[in-house]
Amino acid sequence: MMEVKNISSGYGKKQVLFDVSLQVDKGEVVLLTGGNGSGKSTLLKCIYNLLPCWSGEIFFEGEKVNGLKPSDLIRRGIVYIPQKDFYFENLTVEENLQISGHSLPKPELKERIAEVYELTGLTNFRKRKPFDLSGGERKILAFGMGLIHNPKLLLFDEPFAGVDAKNTATLLKLFKETIINTENSVIIVEHKDDARQLFTQKTKMELGKIISK
Ligand SMILES: Nc1ncnc2c1ncn2[C@@H]1O[C@H](COP(=O)(O)OP(=O)(O)OP(=O)(O)O)[C@@H](O)[C@H]1O
Ligand SMILES: [Mg+2]
């Protein structure tokens, strides 16, 4: 489904990724682990073209996708949920879901929001702002905003960080219902073991290189 081939990248003159290669098949859950600063978030940013690749290639469903804008990647089915600040603090949950799906035709957006409410249980929070949600509830909102696009491949940076047992269970259920049971794929960046029951491939990074699979 996605093939990342020999990616090198970094910030300014500082190289962070060194010849990183990774393959994600349909229905696969890839867990990307590695210490702080090992380049996990940087790799997701490169795949999503928020940071240019210095060299290397990225293929999705057989086509080269390097250099495509995030909006084009979303249209193809790739959705990225960053480690932090995915939502607008001054908008309600409902408005955040609307903004996330602003590129969709109105009737489709309405349907997608209804489905996301049903999947996530965010209905009770529709009028609240992220400031008035717990950390775990905010992660569920971030997931919901990604799910508006019905992703074929989700890139999710630390979905379980700061999330308690109850909301972890909700997130795991969401991964199962929206990704695993439907043969979609996900790259999860995570330090904790919460994703253990989900992943089909564990990939470890160190100093900007993949060191084990
Ligand atoms: N905008 C930036 N400018 C310069 N250096 C950066 C920038 N963003 C990240 N870095 C550096 O790139 C390296 C890799 O950072 P990255 O965020 O990819 O690590 P990570 O593996 O996601 O770590 P963590 O587990 O702490 O989230 C770090 O040394 C970091 O300081
Ligand atoms: Mg990170």
Percentage of residues in strands: 25-35%
Indicate the CATH topology: Rossmann fold
Strand adjacency order, main sheet: 6-7-8-3-9-10
State the share of residues found in helices, binned by percent. Answer: 25-40%
CA distance, first residue to last residue? 18 Å
How many beta-strand elements?
A: 10
Low-pLDDT sequence parts: none
Shape: globular
Largest sheet: number of strands, sense, barrel closure: 6 strands, mixed
Q: Structurally, how many domains make up the residues?
A: 1
Name of the top-level CATH class: Alpha Beta
Descriptive account of the structure:
The chain is α/β, with parallel strands linked by helices and 213 residues long. It has a single domain (2-212), classed as 3-Layer(aba) Sandwich (Rossmann fold). It is built from six helices and ten strands. The protein is globular. The structure holds adenosine-5'-triphosphate and magnesium ion. The site of adenosine-5'-triphosphate has 12 residues, from strand 2 and helix 1.
